[in-house]
């Protein structure tokens, strides 16, 4: 997408010397912002947006029904609304002192970088292919980015390169792990996550992004394993969100789980009223009344995901379907022409999926979010006519 400033700068050199250009941090002037699913297809036209089938942001289908009270709306909300913290505490079995509510997990990512990395001095470590916001937030803040790509072993694909990580000890302040990974979909074995935490125990915070936690087939007691990690290791941070399995992406509510010390530190950096009162009200209701609905949504996503994966495996343009523990399926097309053909054909028919082919190791890969049964069957019917 070309910005108006770029258009103008091509035709009128005076525009490039605006006061903003002169004063802005130089590296931001040409920086490309995160191309979120919404931003890529922004039209500003509500009817057009509503006529599209959005299978590109790993949102859950279906709208919740929430009644809001406007009582106290004239007042600022609590810094951390108590009812919300209590509700998440009950849900995740951690004391409230270990929880920070944020504007989505994305705000957690940003706060962690701003709290631990000095601009232009410190770095974060990412393991691509991975979620794009770790690098974007680091870049925004002026933190360096070290990459230790995921590796394929004889047993499993897209695993941590523990030897590669060891070589970076002392060079990064924050290490981002994503499990289940977006866009790869696989859960990292807990032994690998523990090994990474041990490797960086004296030198870096290890962030385990569990945005898709609810969709995983949890090993027995996974909840306890996480809680044990937080109580036993000083350098662990877990990210969660209501945007996925709770079907509340529009609410912007996530949670950072860590030691009391880390939560106290992040609380110094976060905005004074991060959680709007209506957000706290809806999120608290979802976490207390709607756990059964959430579980049913997850179960339905599991069966749709398996059906879609099986169907993809039979398509002649598809060469690989990735195992997924989340609410999306990543697949590889035979070549770039077929990848473009599938993607563009869907867009022409108002079905939006995500092109992941620019990511490391993901040539010709596309990702489909598990929408409703209707949406997935529309997509399959359409591709049958390709
Ligand atoms: C791995 C991962 N982490 C974090 C997020 C951001 O979640 P939120 O909507 O809570 O900001 C996403 C969103 O797609 C994601 O895929």
UniProtKB/TrEMBL annotation:
Cofactor: pyridoxal 5'-phosphate
EC number: 2.6.1.9
Transmembrane regions listed in the UniProt entry: none
Name listed for the protein in its UniProt record: Histidinol-phosphate aminotransferase
The protein's enzyme class: transferase
UniProt keyword Transferase present: yes
Pfam families recorded: Aminotran_1_2
Pathway(s) annotated for this protein in UniProt: Amino-acid biosynthesis; L-histidine biosynthesis; L-histidine from 5-phospho-alpha-D-ribose 1-diphosphate: step 7/9
Domain Aminotransferase class I/classII large: residue ranges: 41-379
Residues bearing PTM N6-(pyridoxal phosphate)lysine: 244
SUPFAM superfamilies: PLP-dependent transferases (SSF53383)
PROSITE patterns: AA_TRANSFER_CLASS_2 (PS00599)
Record text on subunit structure and interactions: Homodimer.
Record-linked InterPro entries: Aminotrans_II_pyridoxalP_BS, Aminotransferase_I/II_large, HisP_aminotrans, PyrdxlP-dep_Trfase, PyrdxlP-dep_Trfase_major, PyrdxlP-dep_Trfase_small
Reaction(s) this enzyme catalyzes, per UniProt: L-histidinol phosphate + 2-oxoglutarate = 3-(imidazol-4-yl)-2-oxopropyl phosphate + L-glutamate
GO MF annotation, one: pyridoxal phosphate binding
């Amino acid at each position: 997408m070309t910005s108006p400033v770029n258009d103008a700068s091509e035709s009128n050199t005076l525009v490039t010397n605006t006061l903003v250009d002169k004063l802005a941090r130089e590296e931001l002037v040409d920086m490309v912002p995160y191309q979120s699913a919404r931003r890529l297809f922004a039209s500003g036209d509500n009817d057009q947006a509503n006529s599209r089938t959005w299978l590109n942001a790993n949102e859950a289908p279906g709208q919740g029904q929430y009644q809001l009270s406007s009582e106290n709306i004239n007042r600022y909300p609590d810094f951390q609304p108590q009812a919300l913290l209590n509700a998440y505490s009950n849900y995740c079995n951690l004391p409230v002192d270990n929880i920070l509510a944020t504007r989505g997990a994305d705000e957690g990512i940003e706060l962690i970088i701003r709290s631990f990395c000095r601009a232009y001095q410190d770095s974060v470590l990412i393991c691509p292919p991975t979620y794009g916001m770790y690098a974007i937030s680091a870049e925004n803040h002026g933190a360096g980015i070290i990459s230790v790509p995921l590796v394929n072993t004889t047993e499993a694909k897209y695993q941590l390169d523990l030897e590669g990580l060891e070589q970076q000890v002392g060079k990064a302040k924050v290490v981002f792990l994503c499990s289940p990974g977006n866009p790869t979909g696989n859960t990292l074995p807990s032994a690998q996550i523990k090994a990474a935490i041990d490797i960086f125990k004296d030198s870096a915070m290890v962030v385990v992004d569990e945005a898709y936690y609810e969709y995983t087939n949890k090993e027995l007691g996974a909840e306890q394993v996480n809680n044990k990690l937080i109580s036993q290791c000083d350098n662990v941070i877990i990210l969660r969100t209501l945007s996925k399995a709770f079907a509340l992406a529009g609410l912007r509510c996530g949670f950072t789980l860590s030691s009391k010390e880390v939560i106290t530190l992040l609380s110094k950096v976060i905005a004074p009223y991060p959680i709007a009162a209506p957000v706290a009200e809806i999120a608290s209701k979802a976490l207390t009344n709607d756990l059964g609905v959430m579980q049913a949504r997850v179960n339905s996503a599991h069966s749709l995901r398996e059906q879609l994966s099986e169907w993809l495996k039979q398509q002649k343009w598809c060469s690989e379907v990735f195992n997924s523990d989340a609410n999306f399926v990543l697949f590889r097309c035979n070549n770039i022409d077929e990848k473009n053909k599938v993607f563009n054909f869907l867009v022409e028919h108002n079905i939006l999926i995500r092109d992941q082919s620019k990511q490391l190791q993901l040539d010709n890969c596309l990702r489909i979010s598990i929408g409703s049964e209707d949406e997935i069957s529309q997509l399959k019917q359409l591709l049958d006519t390709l």
